[in-house]
Task: inverse folding
């Protein structure tokens, strides 16, 4: 049996650990709520952009001339992987790695990463890593401009022929799913619009057809140029926000489980301490009694 002093030392260590994990749980909970609020508020905006782009493509499809809307042969796939900078978030990153190794195993992929964990496992897989970026927990659009510009230039210059985003997204606070979202080229937005409406719980009612001809000012090409840049930027921004919300959610529950385990261990140690202390007292009484009778 362990000594009383050793058990007390371990009880203090477990208690200090529980305090740390509880504090980390509260911090992650606060960050999760903020990230989810921002992510949810941005869905309406990206839905409006998607519907506008889809409407423009269907009304004036033949007049659209922009690399983002042109189908091309995919020789090199560009993949933006969004993971965490830190650990302590359960199996979130491990499941994402498993999806990447399964979905991107042909060898014709070029990767761009956000987060240290993403760059580390892409390097371990010996895959082609074009660039690595880091984003703070605040996730402001100005932070993502270098990422967006790098991906846009890589696509326009022909370094990659498509751009996809791989990340983890929260279904609910306990469940996360790994997403592979194709951003470029913009070919069919119907599925994207339906998925957004489903997540936003918007009923897809029948829309009356407007036969009137649309007038574009200053012209269709100027609107396409501006709209395509906005759509691409906001798509990347939305995916990073969703990934950050999932990260904070996973870390909150990982720290909650750690705190619960520490509390349970503290109770067991307290019982062990009481038994050891009672055993020590009993032995001392026996020794005193034996000495008195001897």
Result:
């Amino acid at each position: 049996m362990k000594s009383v002093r050793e058990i007390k030392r371990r009880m203090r260590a477990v208690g200090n650990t529980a305090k740390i994990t509880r504090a980390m749980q509260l911090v992650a909970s606060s960050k999760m709520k903020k990230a989810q609020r921002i992510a949810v508020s941005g869905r309406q905006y990206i839905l409006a952009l998607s519907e506008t782009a889809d409407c423009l493509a269907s009304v004036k499809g033949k007049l659209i001339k922009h690399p983002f809307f042109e189908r091309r042969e995919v020789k090199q796939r560009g993949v933006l992987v969004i993971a965490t900078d830190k650990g302590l978030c359960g199996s979130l990153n491990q499941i994402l790695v498993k999806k990447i190794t399964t979905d991107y195993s042909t060898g014709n992929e070029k990767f761009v990463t956000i987060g240290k964990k993403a760059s580390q496992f892409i390097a371990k897989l010996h895959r082609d890593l074009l660039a690595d970026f880091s984003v703070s927990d605040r996730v402001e659009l100005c932070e993502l401009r270098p990422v967006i510009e790098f991906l846009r230039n890589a696509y326009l210059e022909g370094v990659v022929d498509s751009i996809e985003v791989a990340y983890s997204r929260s279904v609910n606070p306990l469940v996360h799913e790994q997403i592979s979202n194709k951003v470029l080229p913009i070919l069919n937005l119907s599925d994207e619009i339906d998925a957004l409406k489903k997540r936003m719980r918007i009923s897809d009612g029948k829309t009356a057809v407007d036969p009137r001809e649309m007038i574009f000012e200053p012209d269709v090409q100027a609107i396409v140029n501006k709209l395509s840049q906005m759509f691409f930027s906001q798509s990347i921004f939305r995916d990073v926000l969703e990934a950050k919300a999932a990260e904070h959610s996973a870390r909150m529950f990982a720290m909650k489980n750690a705190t619960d385990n520490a509390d349970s261990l503290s109770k067991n140690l307290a019982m062990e301490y009481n038994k050891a202390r009672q055993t020590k007292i009993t032995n001392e009484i026996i020794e005193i009694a034996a000495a008195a009778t001897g």
